[in-house]
Amino acid sequence: MNIEKHTEAIKACRFCFMCRHLSGIGNVTFRESDTPRVRALLLDQVMSNPALLANADTLETLYNSDLSAACRYHCVKHFDENGLLLAAREDVVKAGLAPADVCQVAAEYLARPAAPAISGKGDVLYFIDYNTAAVPAIATAFGKIMKKAGVSYRSAEKGCPGKALKVLGYANEAQKAAREFAAAVNAANVKTIVVSNPAAYDALVHDFPEMGIKLKGKVMHTSEYLLSLKLACRKKAGALYYLESDFLKNYHPDYEFPGKLLSHLGAKRLTFGTNNEESYTCGEGALVLQQLRPVLVKKLACYIEARADHPEKDLLVTASPYTRKQLSTHTKLKVVTLEELTASLI
Ligand code: SF4
């Protein structure tokens, strides 16, 4: 079983309460089962008796997680509670135990073409994944910035690099999608690949090398690319709250570019909520939580709204199109992405 690779985390987490307050789902369900400790206890039992993986409550718990990796990041010894869950999901799928709702969401992604449709001219390729496409203002803002900077670029729209399949536990299918995606992007032969969605960025810079897949061109999250343009601003961003991305903070510790871009834009960053450890992303790390657990995503959004100082007038900025979409859908919060903020200032 894949979870055997995470025996160390199982042993450490099963009797530990230390990070339970950082489990986003646990904070809205108030259930102990939605914390790293009880998930590890359940999987400890599965190690002794693999038949227990079929237990309906265990399966529900495994797919409830927001996969923010906030617990791993802030754990003193960084025990990989997040990797344990992903490994367990792979075991579930390999054993043919994926619940009906998980199979349905996976089928939606399997039906999508992996290779993106590429158009335009230039050495820069801008990847507009499904989450970015769901908020058209993001690609529009990027286009405005590129026009101002005088850089022509190509768009790669709606391909699927396999990240959603991977987090659902469909490892082989994810790898097949990743190879098809990479082949299409490599055929474009560009120097730079700019990625708006942090989940897709993580797929390209972390998952692809792990699968032995090489991409031609340097992959940059939009924050890194926009910073490299050294844009002149008409005005300063001023006071705002930056909501960290799970992928850019907890998966890629100390990823510096969103912070540097905000400084370049003249942002005065204010502290959101009561601490800087919690994930305020509505489940960005789980990618398809909105499809699997819409009620929980709404609760996560309301949890964030309840922590805003002035919910109707504070400016919130996120690197994640997913977070932008969920907060705009479920709350009155004023939230924009880094692209939109940048475009409004140049
Ligand atoms: S990740 Fe660290 S802090 Fe959290 S339960 Fe495991 S050992 Fe404890």
Can you walk through the features of this model?
The protein has 346 residues and is an alpha/beta fold. It has three domains: 2-97, no CATH class; 117-228, Rossmann fold; 238-345. Helix content is 51%, strand content 11%. It has a five-stranded mixed beta sheet. Strand 4 (192-195), helix 12 and strand 5 (218-221) form a beta-alpha-beta unit. It is globular. Bound molecules: iron/sulfur cluster. The site of iron/sulfur cluster has 12 residues, from helix 1, helix 3 and helix 5.
**Poorly predicted ranges (pLDDT <50, ≥5 residues)?**
none
CATH architecture of the largest domain: 3-Layer(aba) Sandwich
Question: Quick one: overall form?
Answer: globular
The termini sit apart by 52 Å
Structure summary, number of beta strands: 9
Summed up, the helix count is: 19
Spatial order of strands in the largest sheet: 1-3-2-4-5
Computed Rg: 20 Å
pLDDT average, as an integer? 97
- Domains, number: 3
Biggest beta sheet attributes? 5 strands, mixed
Oligomer: single chain
Helical coverage, percent range: 40-55%
> How is the CATH topology of the largest domain named?
Rossmann fold
What ligand molecules are bound, each kind once?
iron/sulfur cluster
Structural class: alpha/beta
CATH class of the largest domain: Alpha Beta
Order of helices and strands: HHHHHHHEEHHEHHEHEHEHHEHHEHEH
Q: Name the beta content range.
A: 5-15%
Give the SSE map.
Elements: H1 7-13, H2 24-29, H3 36-48, H4 56-64, H5 70-74, H6 81-94, H7 100-110, E1 117-120, E2 124-128, H8 130-133, H9 136-149, E3 153-157, H10 163-168, H11 171-188, E4 192-195, H12 198-210, E5 218-221, H13 222-228, E6 238-243, H14 246-251, H15 257-264, E7 267-269, H16 289-292, H17 294-305, E8 315-318, H18 321-330, E9 334-337, H19 338-345
Parallel strand pairs: 2-3, 2-4, 4-5, 6-7, 6-8, 8-9
Antiparallel strand pairs: 1-3
Helix pairs in contact: 1-3, 3-6, 9-19, 13-15
The structure holds iron/sulfur cluster.
